[in-house]
Write a structure and sequence with these properties.
It is a single chain. The relative contact order is 0.12. The strands form three sheets. Strands 5-4-3-8-9 form a five-stranded mixed β-sheet, with helices on both faces. The chain has a two-stranded antiparallel ribbon with strand order 1-2. It has a domain of 87 residues. Helix content is 50%, strand content 8%. It has 528 residues and is an alpha/beta fold.
């Protein structure tokens, strides 16, 4: 029988309560069935099975200003052949009748590529001295192993920039007439590359010491048949990669340390510990110790054990927070990230110090929101239109910052993200994004900081392609070389340096020239 809805539950009999419960359970089951049917219908209309593939929203391209007609006109293009070096000339005679006057030549350039093995036999003299000893002439200083610098450059270039796999590279070289094995190719790629590894490390240090901002991102990686993560750091002047086993905040701090191994307890480290909620007595105990710098992880952990921190079973973990703080102190002690903004996609491990968030990822959350009614869809599209309009104005502000405009944009942010549409999921999302206000509006105080992490995603594509076509790495030197050479490759591209010339110069190829990349990164980072 129907139960009056205004009667308090305490006044209902047991039978009436059981009837009410049964009715509510039936209504709940009917609603669950309706939701399942609606989800299936949405999936059918989208033409997908399982998880739908959401297309990019297009906010970045859609908010670009329209170029004027005069700006669209193509400029005069210089002749590409003007910079070519002429290696040979052929003169073609003309069948001219008697009495003709010679009027010079009509040039026609033919570009070709010469790929052939060049084998040099080095014959070192041997002499037998009167006292019975053998004297052999020393090897030339420019000879390193059985493979010359041009071959080593070709192998590195094909593997890292050409994305050629090792088996195909072996086939290429053998087809050209070289006697080489797969093991020897792997050695050419990984062995004896300390100079390149050091330069890649110095590029990262130079970038972190001078950059006004860096953008960061990560992607999956495989090493020794285990899943890991490849972290990218960079800006308009440099790129660096680091493949590690985890994506924790401590791991990100280790990547930012750029090869330094010490742990430092200084003012910056103590401030980090306070921010992360480490107990005051623990911070005081660390601060009052006479020893404040530790050479490596083993020395640091022994110090924490002497202080009794390893015995504390509390939350947050004092060892982890103290270690993160000491690594952060090391960063600051070495002059890294002096006033640098870290731009990310809102992954928690990247939220350090001056932090900015990507607007494209923020709008993508609204774009991907599932709607089930016309009212919900209309609310979603209206909010997206407001976001696109606001994003276009932020881009205009970056080009021409204005103090008055800054406060107007802050007020507009409040109106957009405090709006309530009646669509519960959308309203909760707007509330969540509003909580990130300061990180989303960093650009108002630092106009040089980009509004998105598209640069990081572009930088990661070669790593993703390499993972797909070559799988993972098997040795520590293989992992280090893959990260270092891909970082150097992209840094060369950003600095306008030919990677082919760069490899040639570092390997000692005659005629190849390339500047020292860390110096160029520092030079480009100086504000004009």
């Amino acid at each position: 029988m129907p139960i009056p809805t205004k009667i308090p539950l305490a006044e209902l009999s047991r039978g009436e309560l059981e009837a009410l419960t049964e009715r509510l359970l039936a209504e709940n089951a009917a609603l669950a069935q309706a939701v399942a049917e609606l989800r299936a219908e949405v999936a059918r209309l989208k033409g997908v099975k399982g998880r739908p593939a959401i297309k990019p929203s297009g906010m970045e391209q859609g908010t670009e200003p329209q170029a004027a007609d005069q700006d669209r006109a193509r400029g005069a293009k210089g002749r590409k052949t003007e910079r070519l070096a002429i290696h040979a000339e052929r003169i073609i005679k003309a069948d001219a009748p008697p009495g003709s006057r010679f009027k010079g030549y009509e040039d026609y350039l033919v570009q070709d590529l010469v790929l052939r093995p060049h084998v040099t036999r080095i014959r070192r003299e041997r002499w037998l001295t009167p006292d019975g000893h053998t004297v052999t002439a020393p090897m030339p200083v420019d000879v390193v192993g059985h493979f010359g610098p041009e071959l080593r450059r070709f192998v590195l270039f094909q593997y890292h920039q050409g994305q050629v796999t090792v088996p195909r590279l072996v086939v290429q070289l053998r087809s050209l007439g070289l006697a080489i094995s797969k093991r020897q190719v792997v050695r050419l790629l990984n062995a004896g590359q300390d100079a390149f590894l050091d330069e890649a490390r110095d590029v990262l240090r130079a970038g972190l010491a001078t950059a006004a901002w860096i953008s960061v991102d990560d992607t999956g990686a495989r090493h020794r048949h285990q899943n890991g993560v490849c972290t990218q750091l960079g800006n308009d002047h440099f790129t660096a990669f680091a493949t590690t086993a985890s994506k924790s905040r401590l791991n990100f701090l280790e990547v930012l340390r750029a090869g330094y191994t010490d742990y430092v307890v200084n003012a910056e480290a103590l401030a980090y510990m306070r921010q992360r909620g480490l107990a005051g007595p623990v911070i005081a105990k660390l601060a009052e110790q006479p020893e404040q710098r530790f050479d490596d992880e083993a020395a640091w952990l022994r110090h924490l054990e002497r202080l009794g921190l390893t015995e504390l079973a509390v939350t947050p973990d004092p060892v982890r927070i103290a270690t993160e703080g000491a690594v952060w102190g090391s960063l600051k002690a070495h002059g890294l990230l002096p006033d640098t903004v870290i731009l990310s996609d809102d992954a928690g491990q990247f939220a350090l110090d001056h932090h900015a968030l990507c607007w494209v990822h923020a709008e993508r959350l609204v774009h991907k929101l599932d709607t089930f009614t016309d009212q919900q869809h209309a609310a979603q599209q209206f909010v997206r239109a407001l976001l696109w309009w606001f994003y276009a104005d932020l881009k205009a502000y970056r080009r021409a910052p204005d103090r008055r405009r800054r406060w107007q944009l802050r007020a507009r942010f409040e109106r957009i993200f405090r709006r309530r549409t009646g669509f519960v999921s959308l309203d909760r999302l707007l509330q969540r994004l509003h909580a990130n206000k300061e990180e989303l509006l960093v650009v108002l105080d630092r106009p040089e900081v980009p509004l998105h992490t598209n640069g990081s995603e572009r930088d990661l594509r070669p790593q993703v392609i390499k993972r797909k076509i070559s799988g993972g790495t098997r040795s520590e030197e293989g992992r280090a070389c893959r990260d270092a050479f891909l970082g150097l490759l992209q840094t060369c591209a950003k600095l306008g340096v030919s990677f082919w010339d760069y490899l040639g110069h570092r390997l000692g190829v005659t005629g190849a020239e390339a500047p020292y990349l860390p110096d160029l990164v520092r030079l480009r980072s100086v504000p004009t």
